Amino acid sequence: MTFRLFEPTTEEFKEFQANLELRRKHDFNWTSPPGDDFNFFTSAFHDVIILFSLAVNETLGESGNLSDGYTLTRKMWNRTFEGIFGNVSLNPNGDRDGDYSLWDMTDAKSGDFAVVANFHGATGELEFVGDIAWPGGATDPPSDTPFCGFDNENPACRTQDSTLTITIIVSSCLLIVGAILILAIYRKVKRDAEIQSRAWQIKWEELQIQDDHARGRGSSAFSLGSASLKTDEGKQIFTKTAFYQGRTVAVKRLAADQVDLTKSLLIELKTVRDLEHPNLARFIGLCIDVPNVAIVNEYCPKGSLMDILQNDSIKLDWLFKYSLISDVIKGVQYLHRSELSVHGQLNSSNCLVDSRFVLKLIDFGLLSFREGAARPRGSHAQQTKLLWVAPELLRDPKRGPTKEGDIYSVGMVMREVATREGPYEVEAKNMDVGEILKKIKLPPAGLQPFRQRATAENVDSSISELIKACWAEDPKYRPNINSLNASIVKINRQKNTGTGILDNLLNRMEQYANNLEELVEERTAAFLEEKKRAETLLYELLPRTVADQLKQGKAVDPESFDSVTIFFSDIKGFTELSAQSTPMQVCGLLLNDLYTCFDGIIGNFDVYKVETIGDAYMVVSGVPVRNGNAHAREIGNMALALLQAVGLFTIRHKPDTKLKLRVGIHTGPCVAGVVGLKMPRYCLFGDTVNTASRMESNGEAMKIHVSSDTKVILDSFGCFQIQLRGAVEMKGKGTQTTFWLLESNNILTKRGELDISRLKNTENWLNRPLVDNQRLPEGTLDDGPMSITEN
Fold first, then answer.
1. Domain for residue 78, yes or no?
2. 489 and 563 assigned to the same domain
3. How many whole angstroms from its chain centre is CA 712?
4. Mean pLDDT of all residues in the chain?
5. Which Gene3D superfamilies has this protein been placed in (predicted)?
6. Same domain, 226 and 167
7. Alpha carbons 391 and 405: distance in angstroms, whole number
8. Which residue would you say has higher pLDDT here, 790 or 447?
9. In the chain, what percentage of residues exceed pLDDT 90?
10. pLDDT over 90 (residue 279)
11. Do residues 273 and 389 share a domain?
12. With pLDDT > 70 as the criterion, what percentage of the chain qualifies?
């Protein structure tokens, strides 16, 4: 069923509808499309205009003000007038008393609705015009109240409701009990399955054993750092490490010929493996492959607490000490609350420190297994470990580990951290470990029990009092682990005002990171400097373009050049001069000085030095970067500059002897490429190289011998003075017409005009002062920068 506004069916409404359709077509030229039903709501707008007109006419008839909206609207209220629908009534509140129709579905398949009743708002009359199809074939509407009443007041329903309630309660109880039983059975079956699954078992083949010193210390030696307390072998014992499932683990070998896996041992193995706490080193598994029986635990790279305390290079302030003591107490507290209940073997050697300086306990549980360690009973290491054991347990070893015994061991560890001394370290200077243990076992007999001093320099008095309380002879007077933890928390709160342990560690980590950043920057700068030096050296050995290709891993293929100019020079009379000098003088005082001077000069020209062999000096232009015909000009200017420099050059060990340079130049095609992988060289190949060499060998001292090919190009610049030498017979070349290059009117370089007396390095080498008829060593020179005069 649904309610809708009453839709009129009178003739007046139909006539209004037809007139409206005609006006819409006449005024707006718009006709309703087929199937678009007329919306009878538009008649309501017509009634509104009639009502407003009535109110306006009455206001005007009373000479009222149409701007008075309040009076105008009040004339529309509480009145009835004739509208399109018929009589339109407005109540005293200005609301229209509407007429509504009740529609009911006449056909469920087609979904057709029809009017079954009309409600007239003005009179409150309900008029039925059809039959209502009530659900379930009923002829009347449903009852206003349920059969049993809203509060179950019908007596006929009470007995039935009580029986239902009892049934529901009993069923719920049975379901809950059954669920609990099923859950208990499931947990037992699951626990048994986990115990029998041996998830802790590790095969020996799965462990990749490392060397003893591959990872540094894991569990510390059992020595106490004093001369009298050492291992039997006189050295520290390191933990075996191995790789297991992608991580490093600590492996503790056990001397066991067989492993009897009883149910109690399986339960204990599962219990130990399920223990997980930030201050416990996780038990990973057990290897039972005889003879490689071993316990596998989490590996802590910083070693044991004993290692850290004995390492004087590690500075521990009291904030750090409080943190270590707190970690020990939290680890023991978790064990005391767990199914394991006790540790039983606590000492500073099985308090490990991980990479984040978090202390973690190890060697808890599996006491029967751990008693089978490789070190025999009565050994020095075993006796040393007894110094952490409570006196009552020393007197009665069969008593087994207790929580009170753990508290005594915690006190021993606390003193080690506070003083950075081993247990009974002072007493050990005058007696051995056995004597110390005997005095600890002796009953006090009214005297103070034998203990080491709990106080020391710079040790907080509150810590000293806690240590003494942990060492009480009567176990019942020792504090429990909860009160001990509360005391440490209180001390931390009092001592660490403003900052906490975490803040302190974060500050340390930040400082460490800053140090690393500075170190990285320093190493990076050094690397970049070395890289720059290597690149500079590489660019000196090979052309820059070729060196860049080699740096990028590209192959340098040989390249052909159509026209280059090659320079060859050597020293006339070099053999005789070498015979009169020592090899050191020839190498260092002659050739090195001369070619250093040459190298400084050629840097001012667009040339590339190919190589030096003995007194021979080879330079090329136009290779590897082509420069048109400028290669002849660059080589010509360079040759003149070198000839001028040789005239001013002084031999350090023979100042009265003048060097005589012989130069040959030739222009032509050639092929250039890198030869070799070790000490690669950039070499030139072709007849041009041979001809240039012949030009040098057939030249004269202190003259520049130029071929006809080179002369043609030099003449094109118009600045060189060249003299005809004539026909020269050359080996393998026949008769060649050659020339002498005399001078250049304008010696141009790629940087400007050249002043040979102020070239880089040249002036210092030429004008070096004499000391005992010897030039100063090279390292004493103040080599000034190169100076180029630009006109």
1. yes
2. no
3. 67
4. 79
5. 3.40.50.2300, 6.10.250.780, Nucleotide cyclase (3.30.70.1230), Transferase(Phosphotransferase) domain 1 (1.10.510.10)
6. no
7. 8
8. 447
9. 23
10. yes
11. yes
12. 83
Q: Residue 372 CB: number of other CB atoms within 10 A?
A: 14
Return the pLDDT at 776. 33
Residues 285, 420: one domain?
Answer: yes
Token look-up 């009974």 returns 424
What's 288-299 look like in SS3? EECCEEEEEEEC
Range with the poorest average pLDDT among 283-287, 430-434, 457-461: 457-461
* Containing structural domain, residue 180: 163-191
- Evaluate if residue 412 carries a pLDDT over 90: yes
Total structural domains within the chain: 4
Distance, CA of 579 to CA of 596 (rounded, Å)? 22
Q: What is the CB neighbour count within 10 angstroms for residue 300?
A: 24
As a whole number of angstroms, the distance between CA 734 and CA 292 comes to 89
- DSSP β-bridge partners for residue 250: 241, 297
The answer to whether residues 269 and 186 belong to one domain is no
| Same domain assignment for residues 178 and 118 | no
Name the residue among 387, 333, 327 with its Cα closest to residue 357: 327
C-alpha distance across the termini of the chain, in Å: 112
Q: How far apart are CA 72 and CA 54, in angstroms?
A: 10
pTM: 0.46
Quick check: 77 and 90 in contact, CB under 8 A? yes
Whether 160 has a pLDDT exceeding 80, the answer reads no
- Token pair recorded at residue 453: 């001093």
SS3 assignment for 157-177: HHHHHHHHHHHHHHHHHHHHH
Closest CA to 616 of 578, 553, 572: 572
Pair 82, 172 in one domain: no
Length of the chain: 791
Closest CA to 480 of 536, 424, 402: 402
Long-range contacts of range 511-515, CB-CB < 8 Å, 24 or more positions apart?
Answer: none
- Comparing 115-119, 133-137, 488-492, 527-531, the range with the smallest average pLDDT is 133-137
